[in-house]
């Protein structure tokens, strides 16, 4: 339920000119700084003068410095500002089945980015199910490393849009329980209580030094979605993702929160998997045909 995201919040953002208006709230986790709070608030509000020109005061009336000091719990008041009706995508669950995408991410990372254990997955930063949004917003123009010839070929499957994560960590990433802030040395920002000991840590320098590293602008997109998902109102619902064999997954979805949206997502997610599988089969068949022709000529 959405109330799960709202539990244990200890940072509250108000309009300085209207103390009764709660603009957003979040859970304070390890590694959060005053500067991080300014960046987060800048996402959930629309300020005039231009974005970034606002101040935060604590509940003692003192202006909060925009520095790297640890963030303290409490109420903060923003001025000047207006609430932003920022566009937000639905919480997603990546179901990566494109073998070429997996292989490229694993070959680059060589391990889970956060923990070296079995059961890790190649996760899309920008979810595969949102292919239409990817196309509409021209994200393909940001990609400089296209998928390999054995891949279905869509730019969303570029290694630059992937991270290797342990499967349980991947679920937290897909549901925006944590994100990565590329303009703060690629720090891990957790928006829920830190259960994996990753809050306040950083991406490995070896990954960041690799020319195939994830694009900073895609990580920034994911961070923005995480802020909107966790801070606005009660937050997006926390959906169940692990369905044991034999469990009625569709029934669980129909009886759960945002049933229509989740059913739509599952439909498009499965459809994307099917289309990619068909393209992979066609590509393999074409390659087999080429080799067959060479053999016949010999």
Automatic annotation (TrEMBL):
Q: Where is the DUF7881 domain?
A: 9-77
**Residues of the HNH nuclease domain:** 117-181
Region (Disordered) location: 279-298
This chain belongs to the protein called HNH nuclease domain-containing protein
Give the organism, scientific name: Lasiosphaeris hirsuta
